[in-house]
Write a structure and sequence with these properties.
13% strand, globular, 16 helices, 3-stranded antiparallel β-sheet, 8-stranded mixed β-sheet, alpha/beta
C-alpha cells in the first residue's frame, strides 16, 4: 500500500501459546488482543494494508486507537537530558570512587579480560601499582567532587586489590579523616585468596562491604579460576579462608557478597550444589551473571542444553511469585534475573506518548555514578571500561574531568540517531559506550550487534511480564474451581 513510517503504529507484536499481545511503545504498555486484531495489525505494521483497511478488518484496533493506542509518534531528537547539567553535576555529584590499586593478580581466570593475551582490546596483568601519592590525590579529588553526595563510597579494585593491603590501610585512614562527619562507606572486590585474619578484622573495623568471587562447587570454580600458573585450582584455598574468617567472626558473613560468574558451557544448575555443600555461603547474598565475552577471545557461547534449562529455571522463578517454591530449585542466576525483572517492572510506568527528545543508551552518566581511577591516575566511567581505549578516558588527576569527553559518552546514541528514533526497544535500551568503543572511536558495527541484543532482551522482558499475567490467570482460574 506504500504506507510511510509516520502512518505505521509504533508497536511490537508478541504471540505466546496462550494469547496475542501488542506492546505499544508510546504508551509503554502491553495489551492483550484477539488473534484477528493481531494478524491485521501485523499486516498494517508490515505495510501490506493501510490504516483504513486495518480499522475495517479489525474494529478492535479502532477502539484501541480511540483510547490513545497505536500512535505512530516517534521521538524527534536523540539527546540526553542530563547533558546541560553535567558540567555542574561533575563538580559536586560524583557518587562513587573506585581505585585501581594494582594491575597485578595472583589468579589467571580464563574469562578475565586481563588474563587474555590474544587481543589488545584490554590491558594484561602487569606489575603496575598505584602510589600512595596518587591514591591520596584521588581521595582529595573525590572529596572536592562529592560534596553533594549524602553517602560517598570508596571502592578498591585490581587486579587483586589485597596484594596492596598496606596501601589500602593508608587510604582508608586518610579518607576517614578527610571525610570526618560524613557517612563514608568502603567496599572491595577480591578473589578471597589473601583473606587473612588481619584483613577480616580490618574490614569489620572499617565497615567494609566485601565481594568475593566464587563460581560454584570445586569442579566448576577450578575450571576457570586458577592461580597464575594457569593450572592450579583456587576453590579450596578460598573456601578455607572464608570458613576460618566466619568461624572467628560470624558477623563477617553478613558483610560478604558472593559474585558468581556462570560459564554457559557448564550445566546451568551446577551452582546450586554450592549452597547445599557449604553453609558458609549465603544464598540471599549472592549475585550471578553469565561470562561477559566482550573482551574475551575464548569461546564461552551457551549450549542449547544450557539455554533450555535456563528458560525452564526462569519460568520456575516467575512461578515462585504465585506459589511457594523451594529456593533450592532457583539457581542464583535466575534469582538475580527475577529481582532485576521485578525492579524493571516497577519502573515500567505508562506514558501518554514518547517525549520529543530521548536518549536511549547505557545506565550511567559518565563520571557521576562511578569514577574509576587507574594506577596512573587516569579517569574512566567505571572499571568495566577498556583501559587501552582513548575514547573511554574522561580525564585524569592532573587536569580533572574532560567534560567534552563525558558528553560524548553520554550522547553515544547520536552515533545512529535515526535508528534509535525508530527502535521499538528504545525505552529498554542499555547499550553502553564501553560496548561499542574501538580504541579512539565508536563502531557502528558493534552498535548494531548490541542493538540486536537489546531488542532480544526487551522481548524477553515483555514475555516474562506476559508470563506473569498468564500464570496469574491460570492460578485465578484454578482457585475459582
Amino acid at each position: 500500500m506504500g504506507a510511510s513510517l509516520v502512518d505505521i503504529p509504533f508497536v511490537h507484536l508478541i504471540q505466546t501459546p496462550m494469547g496475542y499481545y501488542v506492546y505499544d511503545v508510546n504508551r509503554n504498555e502491553v495489551v492483550c488482543i484477539t488473534k484477528n486484531a493481531y494478524c491485521v495489525l501485523a499486516d498494517w505494521v508490515g505495510k501490506k494494508i493501510d490504516e483504513n483497511r486495518a480499522f475495517s478488518l479489525a474494529p478492535e484496533l479502532l477502539r484501541l486507537n480511540a483510547k490513545g493506542y497505536l500512535s505512530a509518534n516517534r521521538p524527534k531528537e536523540i539527546a540526553h537530558g542530563m547533558a546541560q547539567f553535567l558540567p555542574e553535576k561533575l563538580k559536586t555529584g560524583v557518587q562513587q570512587l573506585t581505585l585501581q590499586v594494582t594491575q597485578n593478580c595472583n589468579f589467571r581466570c580464563r574469562y578475565c579480560p586481563y588474563s587474555n593475551f590474544e587481543t589488545d582490546a584490554q590491558r594484561s596483568h602487569t606489575n603496575e601499582k598505584m602510589t600512595l601519592d596518587t591514591a591520596l590525590c584521588a581521595i582529595d579529588f573525590y572529596f572536592d567532587h562529592s560534596r553533594g553526595v549524602a553517602a560517598p563510597l570508596v571502592s578498591f579494585y585490581g587486579g587483586e586489590p589485597l596484594l596492596e593491603f598496606p596501601l589500602i590501610k593508608e587510604v582508608v585512614k586518610y579518607s576517614k579523616k578527610k571525610f570526618e562527619g560524613r557517612k563514608l562507606r568502603f567496599n572491595i572486590t577480591t578473589n578471597g585468596s589473601i583473606l587473612t585474619d588481619e584483613v577480616v578484622e580490618f574490614f569489620l573495623a572499617n565497615d567494609f562491604d566485601v565481594t568475593i568471587s566464587i563460581d560454584g562447587p570445586r569442579e566448576i570454580h577450578d575450571k576457570n579460576r586458577r592461580l597464575a600458573d594457569c593450572k592450579t585450582g583456587t576453590f579450596d584455598m578460598v573456601v578455607m579462608n572464608l570458613q576460618q574468617a566466619i568461624n572467628k567472626h560470624p558477623e563477617f558473613q553478613e558483610k560478604m557478597m558472593i559474585n558468581m560468574v556462570v560459564d554457559p558451557k557448564n550445566d546451568v544448575d551446577c551452582s546450586k550444589a554450592l549452597f547445599v555443600e557449604y553453609d558458609v555461603f549465603n544464598r540471599d547474598r549472592t549475585m550471578a551473571s553469565v561470562v561477559n565475552t566482550h573482551y574475551v577471545a575464548e569461546d564461552f557461547m551457551a549450549t542449547q542444553d544450557f539455554l533450555t534449562k535456563d528458560n525452564y529455571n526462569q519460568f520456575i522463578a516467575l512461578f515462585s511469585k504465585f506459589r511457594d517454591v523451594d529456593p533450592e530449585y532457583i539457581p542464583p542466576l535466575n534469582k538475580v534475573r527475577l529481582n532485576t525483572f521485578e525492579s524493571n517492572l516497577m519502573r515500567m510506568k505508562p506514558l501518554e506518548k514518547l517525549p520529543d527528545t530521548i536518549a536511549p543508551g547505557g545506565p550511567c552518566v559518565p563520571g557521576i555514578l562511578r569514577l574509576f581511577v587507574d594506577v596512573k591516575g587516569r579517569f574512566f566511567p567505571c572499571e568495566r571500561c577498556s583501559e587501552t581505549s582513548d575514547i573511554m578516558n574522561i580525564g585524569d588527576l592532573g587536569t580533572g574531568f574532560d567534560v567534552e569527553r563525558c558528553l560524548r559518552l553520554l550522547n553515544v546514541a547520536q552515533l545512529a540517531p535515526n535508528e534509535c528514533k525508530n527502535c521499538w526497544a528504545q525505552l529498554r535500551c542499555n547499550v553502553c559506550a564501553a560496548q561499542i568503543e574501538e580504541g579512539d572511536h565508536f563502531s557502528i558495527e558493534k552498535k548494531h550487534q548490541c542493538c540486536r541484543g537489546v531488542m532480544q532482551q526487551a522481548d524477553d522482558f515483555l514475555r516474562d511480564k506476559i508470563a506473569m499475567y498468564e500464570i496469574g490467570l491460570i492460578e485465578r482460574r484454578r482457585k475459582a474451581k
